[in-house]
Amino acid sequence: MFEATKREAGELLTFFRLLADGRVEWGDAQGNRDEQITPWPVAMVQRMEHNGPRRYLIEPTEVCMVYGEPSHTGDFVPDETRELVRVPRQDFAEAADLLLQLLKSASGVEMVELPDGLEGFLNALDIYDLEAKTEDRTDLSVAFWSVDAPLTGFCVRCRLSPMNPLLDGGRTANLKLEQTGVKFAVPTVNKVNALPESPTEVTDRMLMIERLGGVLKFADVADRVFRANLQMIDLHFPRMLAEMVRAMHLEGLTRVSDLIEYITQSNPLKIKDEFIGKHG
């Protein structure tokens, strides 16, 4: 067995479900199917794999895998040296059902163990990246109705996963917090920095800093362009966003509506109550 995060398993589940069903159902925010709208047939799914783009053409009973070559223009260029691979759609349905059961049974944890059979299936498909690696933040591109139709990119968000970041964790989306409490000695700083990498690494470090008497205060936005984009919304939005991120980690709030309610009560910008009520 090998481990995967719920986010990775959720993306694979969606990918396999599309290939198995060959259609997209319309529904509401609660996931209830809208019987009034005819499902859209999916003709092809394109996904970025470890060795370049790959197209999965959905046929009546099989999925035909077409390998592509990396292209600087972003266009799909078929790899003429690779043979077409055909996989029964039923195999994708069984793999999707297995992933769904794993996600449902793994409550309260971030990692799930994928059984050997599923690992073998991924190896047979030549899939080694559980999450697609793309530059435009899309996880899948779908052609509806016809393989020649324009591709529509999608980001996969799994509700069975604890949190899905809205922004990449790279420097271009970093918010800088300053430690303004007690002055830490070098061994203490090293202890904080030595916390192991994990899905909760940021939260663990922030909690340790506060336990040791530290106070985290917004300092700046690391990237100049990101700072300008935030300030276009509001000059004080960087500070507000930093407080929302801090609350998300330390208070365990992941819904925007809950974060807004928290910000309304904590009022980090010290806005007069009558202004908040009057202007919403």
Overview of the molecule:
The chain is an alpha+beta fold and 280 residues long. It is 37% helix and 21% strand. The protein is built from nine helices and twelve strands. It has helices at residues 6-21, 89-105, 116-124, 186-193, 201-211, 224-233, 237-251, 256-266, 273-279; strands at 2-5, 23-24, 40-49, 52-58, 62-69, 77-78, 85-88, 111-114, 140-144, 152-154, 175-179, 216-221. β3 (40-49) and β4 form a beta hairpin.
Keywords for this structure?
280 residues, alpha+beta, two-stranded antiparallel ribbon, 12 strands, 37% helix, 21% strand
Short characterization:
With 280 residues, the chain is of the alpha+beta class. It has helices at residues 6-21, 89-105, 116-124, 186-193, 201-211, 224-233, 237-251, 256-266, 273-279; strands at 2-5, 23-24, 40-49, 52-58, 62-69, 77-78, 85-88, 111-114, 140-144, 152-154, 175-179, 216-221.
Indicate the topology.
Layout (H helix, E strand, L loop, with lengths): L1 E4 H16 L1 E2 L15 E10 L2 E7 L3 E8 L7 E2 L6 E4 H17 L5 E4 L1 H9 L15 E5 L7 E3 L20 E5 L6 H8 L7 H11 L4 E6 L2 H10 L3 H15 L4 H11 L6 H7 L1
Helix pairs in contact: 1-2, 7-8
SSE succession: EHEEEEEEHEHEEEHHEHHHH
Outline type: globular
Number of strands: 12
Helix content: 25-40%
Q: List low-pLDDT spans.
A: none
Largest sheet: 8 strands, antiparallel
Structural class assignment = alpha+beta
Query: How much is the average pLDDT?
Result: 85
Q: First CA to last CA: what distance?
A: 51 Å
The number of domains: 2
Strand content: 15-25%
Please report the number of helical segments.
9
Estimated radius of gyration = 23 Å
